[in-house]
Specification:
The complex is a heterotrimer. Chain B is an alpha+beta fold. Chain B has helices at 5-8, 52-58, 95-114, 119-123; strands at 16-23, 29-34, 36-39, 45-51, 67-74, 80-92, 131-143. The longest helix of chain B is centred in the last third of the chain and has 20 residues, at 95-114. The chains are: A alpha+beta, B alpha+beta, C alpha+beta.
């Protein structure tokens, strides 16, 4: 299993196919939620935009290890990336970059107050598993 | 728990994609796409379908409490719902099951293609055989559409 | 090994293509042209070379608070002039942050907003930019020179996967050149505009100067002619040894010279005040004093032709007009009457109140003006001077200026004429 993001994975972080985020509560119940996109920081770190999901956030507080599944729209490869929570950013360059996309979309659809970035959740890549490779089950 | 009418009456299920998750080692989620689902007659169980190779990803480990989550999300407008519960059983899909979900998957592929994506590339693997029908008992269902206050239970 | 060579060949081909693209685009961007042409050329370039069919160029305006559409391509409605605030939508955010942005799945967000989100009042009412109804992806790039935002380039597509990172990078590389090219066109247009304004100013100044010279030259002609006449008389009496007559000429010379001097002073002072163009400065004027002053200017001329000059005043005879202009009008009209009235003729000046105006009539028993000539009197191009009854010379400008001055003072002039004489009617406002 890999633990670094490779260049061929980068199109998966461009927001074309929405990723899914899965967390686990302390009592072992899985929780899934769709997110608009996962933001690439570097080969060992990703960021997730925190906007709505209260249950997800509660789970992460209890259990900082979680999973995100991303699909490359060009190669149709689906990766399952195991992440661990590092920290949250409510300002700074990363926050601004993520906020740009959300503000652009939200203001364009007149939903600035509802579709707002609360923070950028910075995560470390622990491991990557290829579930679907070039459109075929791996 | 009886499933909410809201889930039972979702129109245009072809607009939706589906995921299922269980919990594996070190309390980390295992998850996969699934091909489709039906609500059982008792309104308390759902059965979802997926290729056998993908079933092995979320196959509950005997001796664990077999908790499972199932999510459906619209590719057209982010409308989404989550059903949580426990694994009950699984079996090989019948031809009826295959015919049922195959139609839906093909329709979803068409919708993705209309959006300019290669639908077959993204979802075509869901039609691989052999496939498995997994039945779960539904403990609770939630609305998950991204918006303030989302995550509320769906109770009629 | 073969595969590596194949890959390398592919990469080389791609690099060559990019280089050629850069060269073509750079050549075009280097051309100097008006802003409108430049912007449309840029969008056409992007269409032909990058297949970007639906594009907008927006400029910051209103102190960098809004973006305004200056050029568009590939939309049903061009949307030129439409404005959106900074930080609104993709282009607004790009303008605000001066960073590029790509978004996709726009239809999903539109449907989501439509189905699940209440429209927020503050943003409802913002004019929509031209755009594709079924846009799925959009890229916006800031065009920056010296850290200043020159414009924002926006491209849309109905294809969710239209824009790739490589395309974006290529466009970003070109964006600096595009920005510079646009800025050059803006500066070129501004300079061009300034040159045009300056040229117009200079042309006006020249026209004004020419007019002033004409007025000075024209109006001085009569009193200088009078002085010339007196000088000829002096020569005659001197050669005849007629000391008595010679002595009598002294005061006349003095008077004529003072007249010229005074007129010259008036005209020069007035011309100084008209440096920025002929301006009308109306004031209350007693017509009687003004007519008397004009009579004084031509006193000797009138006497030399033995013309009877009569002034009839009826009513208040007070007008509201520019003093120097009306002085010039009366000098010219009365001067012409004297010029075209034969010896022992008759000139009558009368004033009369007509409602809120004063009518001044200058009637003479002169040789008259033909109807064809009357038509050309007020036209600079067609008007040519006619010699007076005693072969007095003119410049043909007098009545052109008279007409202009009357118009500037909200008055009017009309002329009736026959072989028995000419009547000039002036109407001037009382206030």
């Amino acid at each position: 299993m890999e633990n670094k993001i490779t260049p061929d994975m980068l199109p998966a972080f461009q927001g074309v196919i929405p990723p899914i985020l899965a967390t686990v509560s302390l009592d072992g119940m899985p929780n899934m939620t769709y997110i608009s996109h996962v933001h690439y920081i570097d080969e060992e770190h990703l960021a997730i935009s925190r906007q709505f999901f209260n249950k997800t956030w509660k789970n992460i507080e209890e259990n900082p290890n979680f999973t995100v599944a991303v699909t490359c729209p060009q190669s149709f490869t689906l990766w399952k990336i195991n992440l661990s929570y590092q920290k949250e950013a409510k300002e700074g360059e990363l926050f601004d970059e993520m906020d740009m996309i959300i503000t652009a979309i939200a203001s364009g659809q007149s939903m600035e107050n509802t579709f707002k970035l609360q923070s950028a959740v910075i995560c470390k890549v622990e491991s990557i598993q290829t579930l679907i490779l070039n459109g075929k089950i791996n | 728990m009886l499933l909410s009418e809201k889930i039972k009456k979702i129109p245009n299920l072809s607009d939706f994609v589906f995921w299922a998750a269980s919990v594996g080692e070190k309390n980390i989620c295992d998850l996969t796409r699934v091909s489709g689902f039906i609500i059982e007659e008792d309104n308390e169980h759902i059965t979802f379908f997926l290729p056998k190779l993908l079933f092995s990803i979320i196959e509950p480990t005997p001796g664990t409490d077999l908790k499972i989550s199932f999510v459906m999300a619209s590719i057209k407008n982010f409308e989404s719902y989550q059903v949580k519960g426990v694994y009950k059983s699984h079996q090989t899909c019948t031809q009826e099951n295959i015919d049922f979900y195959r139609l839906k998957v093909l329709k979803t592929i068409e919708i993705l293609s209309d959006m300019g994506l290669d639908g077959n590339g993204i979802l075509g693997f869901l039609l691989e055989q052999q496939s498995v029908a997994l039945t779960m008992y539904c403990s609770v269902a939630y609305e998950q559409t991204p918006k303030p206050g989302t995550g509320g239970k769906l109770i009629d | 090994m073969e595969r590596s060579i194949e890959l390398l060949e592919k990469e080389l081909k791609e690099e060559k293509r990019k280089n050629e693209l850069f060269r073509t685009v750079s050549l075009e961007l280097g051309n100097l042209s008006s802003l409108e042409v430049k912007l449309n050329n840029i969008l056409a370039l992007l269409d032909c070379n990058f297949n970007l069919k639906h594009t907008l160029l927006l400029f910051p305006a209103k102190n960098n608070t809004v973006l305004r559409v200056f050029a568009s391509r590939g939309f049903k409605d061009s949307g030129i002039g439409v404005e959106i605030p900074f930080n609104h939508g993709v282009v607004g955010v790009v303008a605000s942050k001066k960073k590029k942005l790509r978004v996709s799945r726009l239809s999903q967000y539109r449907r989501y907003a439509s189905a699940f989100v209440k429209k927020e009042k503050a943003t409802v009412g913002i004019t929509k930019l031209p755009g594709l109804v079924n846009a799925e992806s959009q890229v916006a790039l800031p065009l920056i020179v010296n850290n200043e935002l020159v414009a924002v380039l926006s491209c849309e597509s109905e294809d969710i996967m239209f824009f790739h990172q490589a395309d974006e990078d290529l466009l970003m590389t070109l964006s600096q050149q595009i920005a510079l090219s646009i800025q050059n066109s803006i500066v070129y247009e501004q300079l061009d505009e300034r040159v045009k304004l300056r040229t117009a100013d200079l042309e006006n100044l020249i026209k004004t100067k020419d007019k002033l010279f004409s007025i000075i030259g024209h109006d001085l002609r009569s009193p200088v002619t009078a002085l010339e006449g007196i000088a000829e008389l002096f020569e005659y009496y001197n050669s005849a040894g007629n000391q008595d007559k010679l002595a009598g000429l002294g005061p006349k010379i003095s008077y004529a010279a003072k007249n010229v001097n005074r007129l010259l002073d008036n005209l020069l002072n007035w011309s100084l005040s008209q440096q920025d163009g002929i301006k009308c400065a109306p004031q209350k004027i007693n017509l009687t004093s003004l007519i008397e002053e004009v009579h004084h200017v031509f006193k000797d001329f009138i006497a030399s032709k033995n013309i009877q000059f009569v002034y009839n005043e009826e009513g208040e005879a007070t007008i509201y007009a520019d003093y120097n202009m009306i002085f010039s009008v009366l000098r010219n009209v009365i001067g012409n009457s004297i010029k075209f009235t034969p010896s022992s003729g008759h000139i009558e000046v009368s004033t009369m109140d007509i409602e809120n105006k004063v009518q001044v009539i200058i009637k003479d028993t002169g040789v008259g003006i033909s109807p064809e000539k009357i038509k050309t009197l007020f036209s600079l191009q067609e008007n040519k001077s006619t010699l007076g009854t005693d072969r007095e010379r003119g410049s043909g400008l007098g009545l052109v200026l008279v007409n202009e001055f009357m118009i500037l003072n909200k008055g009017s002039i009309s002329i009736d004429s026959s072989k028995e004489g000419t009547s000039v009617q002036l109407l001037l406002p009382k206030k």
